[in-house]
Amino acid sequence: MNYKLSIDATRQALENTFKRYFLFPNIYRAHKTIDGAKETTILIITLQQSDVISQGIWGILPHNYENDWKMFQKALNTLSVKSKDVESQSHYEEAFFKR
Fold first, then answer.
1. Taking burial as the number of CB atoms within 10 A of a residue's CB, which of 18, 36, 47, 51 is the most buried?
2. DSSP of 6-62, one letter per residue?
């Protein structure tokens, strides 16, 4: 499983590639390495605001989960999820198809 990624493109290159603008353009910083084991924000395009590039925390968290994100990640790693698990496990399904 891969728990690291890199986003080292410029803001302008990302906006041109995805044909969307950043919701918060002044907080974007390129990163050579993003470690998913640490609570770090990554670039996302959400269903709710599909016309902009926003930021979120890497991983899937159930909508009604109220405890610490790190505790959930230790119990159930959601950084890399197989497609068959998205369809068969309810805590993935809601997040994936609705958020």
1. 36
2. EE---HHHHHHHHT-EESSGGG---EEEEETTS--EEEE--STTTTEEEEEESS---
β-pair partners for 43: 55
* pLDDT tens figures, 29-82: 998 988 877 777 889 998 889 999 999 877 777 777 777 777 777 777 777 777
Least Cα distance to 59 among 42, 46, 45 occurs for 42
53 class by beta-carbon count within 10 Å (0-12 exposed, 13-18 middle, 19+ buried): buried
pLDDT in tens, 73-90: 777 777 777 777 777 766
Residue 21 neighbours by CB distance under 10 Å = 12
- Cα–Cα distance for residue pair 51/94, rounded to 1 Å: 21
Residue 85's Cα: distance from chain center in Å?
17
